[in-house]
Amino acid sequence: MDFDFSALRQQFPFFTAHPDWIYLDNAATLHKPQAVFDAMDQFYSHQNSNVHRSAHGLSQQATAAFEAARTTVAQFLNARFPHEIIWTSGTTAGFNQLVFGLMGPVLQSGDRVLISTMEHHANIVPWHIHALPFGVELDVVPLTAEYRFDLAAFAELLKRRPKVVSISHVSNALGHIQPIADIVRLAKAAGAIVILDGAQGIVWEKMDAQALDLDFYLFSGHKLYGPTGSGVLYGKTEYLELLRPLLGGGEMIKTVSFSGSSWNDLPYRLEAGTPNMAGAIGLAAAIVWLQQQDIAAMQQHKKALVQRFYQGCRQIQGLELLSGPTTNAGIVALNLKNEHPADLATLLDQQKIAVRAGTHCAMPLFQALNSKGSVRFSFACYNSFDEIDRTLTALATAVELLTE
Ligand SMILES: Cc1ncc(COP(=O)(O)O)c(C=O)c1O
Description:
The chain is globular. The longest helix is centred in the first third of the chain and has 21 residues, at 57-77. The model has no long low-confidence stretch (mean pLDDT 97). The protein has two domains: 5-24 and 294-399, Aspartate Aminotransferase, domain 1 (Alpha-Beta Complex); 37-291, 3-Layer(aba) Sandwich (Aspartate Aminotransferase, domain 2). 46% of the residues are buried. It contains 14 helices and 15 strands. Helix 12 (341-350) crosses helix 14 (385-403). It is an alpha/beta fold. The N and C termini lie far apart (49 Å). The site of pyridoxal-5'-phosphate (PLP) has 12 residues, from helix 5.
């Protein structure tokens, strides 16, 4: 399959409506192809009714579409069973359910959990809320001098016998791809349960949960061309069975009396209340759409965008690049010496170039880097080389202005 850039870009209504914007904030959220809008519109216009509840035909149609969406995700991740896909509202919600659910059945006072310096707050704060107050202790894998995951230090920390290892596939702040195959292999050999935060990795490369022998994997629909408010917590059946539900209410129960309740089977046990039906259907449509594209060519294109941008940045005096150009999933973080990242981002915004400035929900990372934050340029398959060149010109002008 050839990579037809303009045919791809045309599928994103945002860019037809707003050709003047250069959108380089893709790590925050992606734009969506028309196919996702169509699937959600079809659901609301023709099938809208509540799932799993009513005997009428409409509800049955909605249930069929909703469960077909679950199967699409299960096949995409190569899960063994559709019930290993738990719908969430996103990675953050998934982590809160997961950490809460592990407490008691898996984690008790005195147990250790191992994360890394590069984690997003979604893989830090839920541990603070749900685990640390009950005596669980967190260990943190440091960075190498090149701001990469320190595999040797990781192997050393595994000697402390963490019960759980929870690591992001791709750093949302730096774009660095973690050595997940080694991480999973070493963690398993040390007897730990492995959680992979796929929020940034899911769009970078296809995940095979069985081949990688993942115990848990989380991602957000909106970072995979799908709608906001949709997401997935994947888990192996035997581990999902252990989780205590965080949310109680309709659908997640078998029986309820005033003295207690018994819980439903998977996946419903972990999906209390009316689910985000259109969101699940939209997310499945995004996956189907993605599978119709040349994913390898899209990845190549993204790599080329990073190289071009990185080389261009090297020509601009005063810029400090925090991200490396290789083993990078399409994110470049940089700073202008002695300037606040927000100033650079504001000047770019005035040129209609959307980037993000700050600590990117990774405050501990920037504490480790002894930095107040960065300007983050994050690329997607629908960005063009022309956009990179225009951004570099705008960046050079902004740097000139700020350093005058
Ligand atoms: C690595 C990583 N983990 C978790 C999250 C949280 O995702 P969400 O805000 O969609 O819940 C993000 C979002 O940026 C992320 O990049």
